[in-house]
């Protein structure tokens, strides 16, 4: 693994500083978290600022730990500028999907960099689908694309059942953002890795089919 790039350090620092401020200042936290009612009332900045706040240290650590592992893959392919663009588009995509699915729930709220980080993760998987990743309870590392697809299917299940206190919708939206921007930056993947592009699109297509059918 390469040393942390300055772009990754800057994003991590912004998350850490904003989260620490939120831990110690309830008014700050409440003003900048994702809140459907507040966003619909005009506070659109929450769609970005909420991505730099976290509930607690473990929430913050998990997101930054995941970013640490996959940021270099994206930076190695695209450079720091496009990495930052991809990060922020994924963040906003996560917020937009959450706003769409929860538009009739004015009290729905969320925080965390998970949407943006999932976008980086999904981009890295699309760029390096042969990476092998290990997760808890599975002793043998699996191909990255398998885990990526399974994770999004799990997110659909989480959205449908409201599983846990987790922003599954933002995770999924971030993955869509990472997927689309990666293909925009590197459209030749549509030719060189057509099967992988199609496989990683399956859960995205399923989500919108289920949404159209009113199943989510």
Commentary on this structure:
By secondary structure, the chain is mostly helical. The protein is built from eleven helices and four strands. It has a single domain, classed as Rhomboid-like (Rhomboid-like fold), CATH 1.20.1540. The strands form two sheets. Strands 1-2 form a two-stranded antiparallel ribbon. A two-stranded antiparallel ribbon has the order 3-4. Helix 5 crosses helix 6 (80-101). The longest helix has 22 residues, at 57-78. It is globular and about 50 Å long. The model has no long low-confidence stretch (mean pLDDT 89).
Q: Could you give the topology of this structure?
A:
Elements: H1 6-24, H2 26-32, E1 34-35, H3 36-40, H4 46-49, H5 57-78, H6 80-101, E2 109-110, H7 114-127, E3 132-135, E4 138-143, H8 144-161, H9 168-185, H10 189-192, H11 194-212
Antiparallel strand pairs: 1-2, 3-4
Largest β sheet strand count, sense and barrel closure = 2 strands, antiparallel
Structural Rg? 17 Å
Could you say how many structural domains there are in total? Answer: 1
Count of beta strands: 4
If strands are numbered along the chain, what order do they take across the biggest sheet? 1-2
* Helix-strand category: mainly alpha
CATH superfamily: Rhomboid-like
CATH architecture group name: Up-down Bundle
Q: Into which percent range does the helicity of residues fall?
A: over 70%
Q: Which descriptor suits the 3D outline?
A: globular
Protein name: Rhomboid family protein
Keywords: Hydrolase, Membrane, Transmembrane, Transmembrane helix
Main location: membrane
Membrane topology: Multi-pass membrane protein
